Amino acid sequence: MIEAHEEDLKTYIYRELEQGGKYDIADQSFMNRLVRELTKGAEGMFLLPVLRLRTILKEPTPGQMEDRLADLSHSLDDAFADTIARIQRLPESRSRLGLDALRWLTLTTEAMTESELSDALAIHEKQNAVNVKYRPTTKTILECCQGLATVDTEGRVRLAHYAIQEYLTEHSEDLFPRAEATIAVTCLRYFVFENFQDGPWTDRSEIKSKMEMYPFLAWAARHWGHFTQQTETDPEVWSALFTFFSSSVATAVTNQVRQYSLGLRRDYWIASECWSYTALHHASREGLDRAVNQLLDSGAFSVNELTEMGATPVLMAAADGHTLTTRSLLAHGANPRLRNWYGDALDCAIEADRVDTIRELVRWGMDPNGVADDGHTYLNSALDTDSAGAFATLVELGADIEAQSEKEHHVHIFLTAARWGCVKIVSLMLMRGWADIEMRSPSGLTALHYAAAAGETTTVKRLLDASADIKAMDKKGRTALEYAEARGNKTTARLLVDAGALPRGANRARNLVLRSDRPAATH
Fold it and tell me: InterPro entries per the record (predicted)?
């Protein structure tokens, strides 16, 4: 909650009254009374008096302002309701713009930039191309939202207070009917606009240019699936979805812009990979279970269709944790053991920490103790992203920690987890008793040695908190502190020293000092 100090509020209100020209129609005594009333009812909140002030300032005469002041509620919900009513009383096009903007701001999980929101609000039914003449300015958007929206320091448009989010979410069915479906359809229609029919593009600069010219494109490419999954059975969404799927250009462009805007490496967004990314891959990645079944039943797609990089639909579904879609693909004959550059479907689910999908794949028949041709194990996939939930699930389903340690690491997997900075998995193994904190490698190194050598300060701290022996030496007599210093890991070394570690030779030097401080023997 944004708090308000009384003097700040008074300063703000007097400034608004002056800028609004209200001193021309009301005397100073009324203005002073207005400030007192608004400040008194603030209850430590800045937002409430601001909304109440804006309601009062809309009145044309002092008498009407006094009437409005007497009628105003002191509750936030009533203030929000008054503001919504004020938006609804605006001229039709401005009222629609204000409510449309609030719908986007209420439902989006990733805040939109000014240009993204403006571009989205410019999309109207029956358009087949972007028309920049319909893009509203940020000033106009904020005016139509009547104080419920603001622009943050990073240029993103947000609701002005989390209490507004709560209010609009609670009343969304009345204020924004079919809101998710409307956003899904807006995204899907945008993808098939004429502006993007020259894609996918071969050059990085072309992609950036399109994203700058059409700001909504990247946002829509990242988020269309979220809203479509929620509303897949809506007839309008279903129609727009299959119009999108029927355009190979649209599906290729959407994938290219998504992958590029997420900062993925070039292999993911080059034109040839994007051309190979089919409607079935899209539907699988976004968890569109009904669409997946429809596409497969049509006979137009192979359930094991490969992209240029080797991605299959079941890999896409597993990596994004869409368990029902994974199940549907398996039922249609998908082979989860097919591998791309990273691994198979179980590897992808593990790396993304998708616990339910891991269970589904093992239930289907994948072996949690399976080993790839290169010796890669599934527990190792959990280490790649410190996926503790996946690690625990694999062990629960029968993964053998000792056996997988021998196959891939040549040391216990606990020591590898420490070296790689997998603090969640290190904590899990200690908590479950799956590892001895003082276990050693063949060279006598402990987990603390490995973490210190790698400069994994967070893991070092976790091990120290778990009472790891800070004085432990390897077979050559070296401590964790010596490993940290040898690798130039100054922050880690300082942590160890602060925890009581002594540099090499410090014990001997301390003993010499103690002996020199003793009084001389008398004879």
Answer: Ankyrin_rpt, Ankyrin_rpt-contain_sf, GPIID_WHD
Q: Quote the number of domains for the chain.
A: 3
Per-residue pLDDT at 430: 98
Three-state secondary structure of 89-112: CCCHHHHHHHHHHHHHHHHCCCCE
Q: Write down the H helix ranges in 204-277.
A: 204-213, 216-230, 235-245, 248-261, 266-269, 271-275
Measured in degrees and rounded to the nearest 5, phi and psi for residue 418 equal: -65, -45
Parent domain of 30: 6-74
Are β-strands 112-113 and 149-151 bridged in parallel, bridged antiparallel, or unpaired?
A: unpaired
In the chain, the percentage of residues whose pLDDT exceeds 70 is: 88
Same domain? For 31 and 89 the reply is no
Q: What is the pTM of this model?
A: 0.83
Q: 419, 386 in Cβ contact below 8 A?
A: no
Residue 17: predicted pLDDT: 66
Largest CA distance in the chain: 110
CATH number reported for the structural domain that contains residue 446 in this entry: 1.25.40.20
Q: CA 338, CA 356: separation in Å to the nearest integer?
A: 20
Lookup: tokens for 226? 């979220």
Joined tokens for residue 202: 């071969």
